[in-house]
Every structure is written in C-alpha cells, then in structure tokens.
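Annex B. Sample input.
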Amino acid sequence: MDTFGKLAFLGRQMLLEPAEEVESARRSSGVPAPCGHTPAELGRIFGGDPRRESVSLSETKKNSLGIHEAIMPGGKRIKLLKTLLTSACERDCYYCPFRAGRDFRRATFKPEEMAQAFAELKQRGIAEGLFLSSGIVGGGVRTQDRLIDTAAILRRKLDYRGYLHLKLMPGSERDQVLEAMTLADRVSVNLEAPNPDRLSRLAPKKIFLAELLQPLKWAAEIRRTMPPPYRGRWPSLVTQFVVGAAGESDVEILQTTAYLTAALGLGRVYFSAFHPVHDTPLENVPPENPWREHRLYQASFLLRDYGFQFEDLPFTADGRLPLDVDPKLGWARLNLRESPVEVNRAGREELLKVPGIGPRGADAILAARRVRALREVKQLRQLGIAAERAAPFITLDGRRPATQLALGL
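Annex B, continued. Sample output.
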C-alpha cells in the first residue's frame, strides 16, 4: 500500500473520533454521524470482510484521505487531516475497530514518513491542519515517543507552523506530556468512560486514574504553573466519552464533565454515541440513540459557557437527560415560568439561563440597555436574540411579551 493509500485506510479508522469544534450530534436517525457517515454506513465500513480493505489512489481522492472540515475555537474553518501513525494495537478495547483481537488489516507510518506525507498534502493545499493519534504498540510511552517525534519533525525540521492536535497515549509520562504541549495546539486523552467501573466494561486493560486521568492532570498543572512555550500559549485540553456501551448514566458522564471543565480547565468534552463494530465483544450491544449524544453536548456547553452547575441539569429519575427537550429549556420550564427574568435588570448570569439568550446575546442586552430600556420583542430580535424562545421566561420593563411559546426541541 502506498503513502496515500495508507492515509485513506487509516483515515477510515478515525471515523468514530469527533473532530475539533464541530458540534457532531445535530442529527437524528439517518442524518450523518460525527464523521459524516450514517450508522448504516459505519456498519458497512466496519462490518465487512476486513481482509478486503484496500484503497487505490483514485479512491483515496474520493475519500479525501481522511480530511474533514473542522472549526477552530475562533470560528475559522480548516481542512483537517485526521489520521493514525498505526492501526496496529496491543490493547483489546471491547468497542474499538482496531482492537488487538480483531481480524483486521493494519497499516503503519514511521514518524518521518508521516511528517513528509502531511507536508506534501499541505503544500498541495489538500490539508491545513493535522489531528494525529495512534494505536498502541510497545506500550504507551514508546508510542507517545513516536507521536512526539512526528510532531518535532514537522515543527523543527519542516518548519510547520499550522494547527496540530496530538493524542496523549495511556500511560504517558509527565515529561512526554510537557514535550507534546510545547509542540501542539491541542492535546487530548480519551477517557472513554466517566469512572473506573464503567471503563472496565469498555477497555479492561486501561487504568482510569493512572493511565488516562493522570496525563490530563499533568497537562492542567503545566498550564497553570509554567510559562507558555515560544508560541505564547499552552495548547487546549480535550477528552472524549463513548456513550451508551457501558450502561453509564448521564449523571455519571456529566459529573465527570463538570469536574474536567471546572478543575482541569478542559476546553471541550466530546461525546461519541456508541455504534457496534463487527467482530468485537460489544458487537451485539444496540447502538445508542444519537439524540442522547446531542443532549450531552448541550448540557456540557451549559456547564462550560452558561454558568450552569451540575445540580441545575434536569435529570430524569433514571439519571438521564430528557431526549424530547433541550436541557436549558427543561430547566427554564421548571424554574422561570413563574419567576421570569426581567431583561432590563438581570445580570449576565441570569440572562444566560434564559432559552434563546447565549453569551453574545447577553452581552448585547447589557450594552443596549445602557442606552435605553428594552420594552419590545422586536428589540431583542434586532440584538440577535431568539426572542420566541426567550419570551415565556422573561419580562420587558415589567410586562410579559405577547408571543407564543416555541417548541424548542
């Protein structure tokens, strides 16, 4: 298999890994998954005879070599190559398409080869950024060295200054975390599950606290205590959970999410609704409803950007978020219908609790009311507020707006 064939082959192994700031769950049944493939397509990709996987250069072009459109935190869109150094792996995670015990074709790059391949794609305008992960071969420390070597070649030999996301392997050492952080714009560790018990049902050979959470803690400590590298800032930190394969509740997932956001300063938590893969121990577990993934994203944004506390989230008796209503609207229906927010007096934190008002909208309201009082719904619309969503939960100069409640699903 040539270089471009390997890139396309390995890119398909990254289908279940959400990419950067793309909000990946705006879908119901039949709508594309985070990777741009429907559940049925995922089944075809991972469910066929793995020994027949091969890619020609023409197919490579059609598959875009594993390149995805990603949205950076500032809103810029880039063409992001999502790939692996190797799809060989010594771990036997029960949900993973390239688990050690699966009869599946493998492909591997050496660090120099990967760096040169990406540099060529960038020179040709095919890719602008790189998201690099790897299967584990020879232990997490050795694999992390190979990832760092690739990044160092790109930065120091090939003078690459663009976006780079590096995975931290299970069991990475503190010095490796520091080196990766000096090279990357983002680093991540996939926790996969919210606690050790749930992880044991997904990946029994991984150690939650020592192998997965500890590198994130080191990264947070480095960001907090050390001056940033030559680029002037430390990379952002993110993680991912597999949702629906280990019997975990939304309470468990969001308790851990709240801790990661508040205590470790994670910039983003990703959620990947479980879809069974052929020839894995979990192949007969039913796929998770994509709406659950979507509600978890919404709740995580409330924790990160809207001043909500974990205790504010409207869980059902079984520890789940309702699927038929977004969590902010659910909270507002319980708390604001009888005690609406007065838009002309509320602080920013109160405004952010109102459906239809986001961070930009709250700032716009604070600025506008310094000029004059807000008395009409049309004034909110002019500020970019989703006024119909907000109307049932606010007053304008002491009066409730005369408008119908939106469904808000």
